[in-house]
Amino acid sequence: MAEQILVSVVAQGKSSLDDFRVCLEGLGYLVHAADDSRQAIGKPCGVLPDVMLVGIGMAGADSLDLLETLRHQNPDLPLLVVTDPANLHKVVEGVRLGAWDYLVKPLRDEAELDLAIRRVLERARLLSQKRDCQASGAPPLDLETRQRPGERMERDRVPLDPADGKWCQNTIIKGSSVGNRYGPGCETVTGYTPRELAADSELIYRMVLEEDRQRVLDMVSCLFKARDPLSLEYRIRHKNGSVRWVSTTLVPHGESEGNPLSYQWIFVDITESKRTSESALRFNEELERRVHERTIQLESANEEITTLNHDLLRRSQELEKANLQLESFSYSISHDLRTPLRHVHALSRMLREQCLETLDENGKSYLGFIESGCQRMECLVNDLLNFSKLSLQPLIMTTVQTRDLACEVMAELISNETPQRRVEVIIGDLPACQADIALLRQVFRNLLGNALKYSRKRELPRIEVGSFVSNDQIVYFVRDNGAGFNMEFAGKLFGVFQRLQHSTEYEGTGVGLAIAQNIIQRHGGRIWAEAAEDNGAAFYFTLARERF
User: Fold this and answer.
1) pTM for the whole thing?
2) Structural domain 6-136, CATH architecture
3) For 235-253, what is each residue's pLDDT tens digit?
4) Which segment, 51-65, 120-134, 208-222, 387-401, is predicted with the most confidence on average?
5) 393-547 has which fold?
6) Which of 152, 334, 354, 532 could form a disulfide with 385 if both were Cys (CB 3.0 to 4.6 A apart)?
7) Do residues 94 and 56 lie in contact, with contact meaning Cβ atoms separated by under 8 Å?
8) Where are the domains of the chain?
9) What angle do CA 457, 460, 461 make, to 5 degrees?
10) 169 φ, ψ to 5°?
């Protein structure tokens, strides 16, 4: 190759530039190397290069912009692009922007690079001769036959297929005839060898699925007039009977009298990517279906929850109304009972004071029954009033030193006992809590009062007050060694006027535990009991967890 031929190389990285420089200088070319596209614009070494070699994907992000700039500055400058398989898709854009030919790295040998340079130089020479003939009025040159002796334009060359699953086909147009050359990769994509495809020109169309064939024919109909690259995805029937997806790009090369001289078809097997896409699409559709079904289920559940909430609110309002009516009724009855009760009590007292000596033993006994009945009735009325007031009384929350409160209530109750009675009292560690102190005092008074009352027949009554933690919640308890009760009847314990012991043995109205339960529930807790007949009883209660 003549020493006067100057090749300007633009590539990214010193290693790539050095490789091109060594190879080109070994072939006898003058070399100007640049790793910056700005150095390649204009006359990089003072003169216009004979060939410009640009690395696509190796000269930075602006390599395609450089091609466009160079073609705009000098439409006749032979441009040759070099790329790797990863950037092969950029070749189509590079050809559209003015590249005359391209190479794919790694090159087979130095001769491949030399042949590519000679090819673009030959094209430049022939185009120059064509312009000279047109200017002088001479007949136009036949670019396919007017070549240097011993040389071919190699326009019908088939480049090395760049990667597995890809192959190239060249279509060469000579006058009204069209010839095809197939790359070796066609067997990987279609199952047919280049010889089989060349022997049957219709085979490449018959392998296209009927549903896609018209679109392929429409693309082929543009063969003689295409100026820009065309792309199409369609399905083919592989030789083994399987269906493959193929992406085909049609790249026009060269031009004679306004028509392309040849086309390169780049076929890529995209079956796996299509399967992945279709699988993802099916997955998304299934996911959307499930989300839709779940949304319908949630909407239905929400409607049911809304209905239940409305029903619960209605029942709650009805219950609240009934409780208010019951409390009003209890309050009214209590007041209505007090007036005749006072009259009976006053008359019985006057009878005792004025007529006691005139009464025989039966009369005195009857008078005693009247007075004890009045006292018991008064206790019932007072307890009923206290119970009815509980729901109306607002809670006044404060920090309560629970152990101190239990000690005070116990001391008060013990002081009302006979001096001769001995009671063992154990009050353990009781953590402080948030509660209404007056109402909590009433709870301890009722529970401790019951413990004293029902352990009265023991020779040494024992009452224990303590606490423990269960499920991260503090549980308080009052335990005694008294009469106990049968657990079969435990459900009646907290009802109003419910008693498990006979009133002749143990006094009381049967309202105390109902009051205690009402107070505990208003504090957000619960109360329950455990016992055995003649073996004592234990009452447990909690307050709302957040109150600690």
Assistant:
1) 0.40
2) 3-Layer(aba) Sandwich (3.40)
3) 999 999 999 998 888 777 6
4) 208-222
5) Heat Shock Protein 90 (3.30.565)
6) 334
7) yes
8) 6-136, 166-269, 273-391, 393-547
9) 65
10) -135, 135
